[in-house]
Design goal:
Strand order of the largest sheet: 1-2
Number of strands: 2
Distance between the termini: 22 Å
Oligomer: single chain
Shape: globular
Largest sheet: 2 strands, antiparallel
Length: about 325
């Protein structure tokens, strides 16, 4: 990769890592479900008028939109609103790679190699260490919500692989149209119309900036840049940069939110990132092999394909 392309890949990872800190700030302005609905509304409009018609069947767009947008992001935002720290959320959500591998084995017929099994075990040890750390300092229920959000993310990754969208940005923008009304409905039912109206009436420049960041910067720019890189380099070259997301997530939370990073949390980070890396490395069979895709971390599901890679080259799935 050229230095400029490497810089772009690192920038995207930084944007996605910082996203967790921005979400934390946004939760001071909006109830979690309303915030998530606004995120998808702004991500979809006006981009949906410029990306062209959907390039996959609507059943996949609706399915991924509900599982990723409503379930995954709804639970993540609720968990963070309930007290899950931003930096720890950026780390723990990476366990979605293990869920993705398990669901792919169960429903897509992928094989469980020794390397992937080792990666799952290492990543689960990291989550366990993070749980011990959070159990001593914060609400375990919020931690559990983020784990369930990661499981939903894993389901959406498998659905995305089945859909195999040829244009990740087009797919993500159309997926973003699906969760808006369900999330608004759930917000009205559980958070209340008065709370939602109060948040919208109190909207200031910081609140608006937060919504623009999580919608346009992390989604439109992030997926656009990531897809551009994947069209020019094999996924096995680009995908490892997403392992920087929790590094930027924890660092930005410490810098801007004053979150402390305990020795246990550093240990959890090392285990989880290392385990995710092992879980995501898959060797293509010589005779043509597994089809694979994954989306980048911390922003939303999209399919990436190893363009230009030889059949024997290692494929790295980076589920989104």
């Amino acid at each position: 990769m050229r230095p400029t392309h490497i810089s772009l890949a690192v920038l995207v990872a930084a944007v996605w890592g910082l996203n967790f800190t921005v979400i934390e700030v946004g939760l001071d302005h909006f109830p979690p479900l309303l915030f998530s609905a606004l995120r998808f509304l702004v991500a979809a409009l006006p981009a949906v008028f410029f990306v062209g018609r959907p390039k996959v069947a609507w059943k996949w767009i609706v399915a991924v939109g509900l599982v990723l947008g409503v379930a995954k992001f709804g639970l993540l935002f609720i968990g963070m609103d309930a007290g899950m720290p931003a930096g720890l959320s950026s780390l723990v959500i990476q366990i979605q790679a293990v869920f993705t591998a398990l669901f792919a084995i169960a429903f897509l017929g992928e094989r469980l190699t020794r390397v992937r099994l080792l990666g799952m075990a290492v990543a689960l040890c990291g989550v366990g260490l993070a749980a011990v750390d959070e159990g001593a300092a914060g609400p375990v229920g919020a931690f559990a919500l983020v784990i369930v959000a990661a499981a939903c993310w894993g389901v959406s990754n498998v659905l995305t692989r089945k859909a195999s969208p040829p244009d990740p940005l087009n797919f993500m923008v159309w997926v973003s149209t699906v969760p808006v009304l369900p999330l608004l409905g759930l917000s009205l039912l559980t958070e209340g119309p008065s709370r939602d109206l109060d948040a919208l009436r109190a909207l200031d420049w910081q609140g608006a900036g937060v919504v623009v960041y999580v919608a346009w910067i992390t989604t439109v720019f992030g997926f656009g840049a990531w897809g551009w890189l994947l069209h020019r380099h094999p996924a096995s070259t680009v995908a490892p940069f997403s392992l920087l997301v929790p590094v930027f997530g924890m660092s930005s939370a410490a810098l801007f939110l004053g979150e402390s990073i305990s020795p246990l949390r550093w240990g959890a980070a090392a285990l989880l990132v290392g385990g995710v890396g092992l879980t995501s490395v898959v060797r293509r069979p010589e005779a043509g092999g597994e089809s694979g895709a994954g989306g980048p971390s911390g922003a939303g599901g999209a399919t990436t394909q190893a363009t230009g890679a030889s059949p024997s080259r290692a494929r790295i799935d980076v589920p989104s």
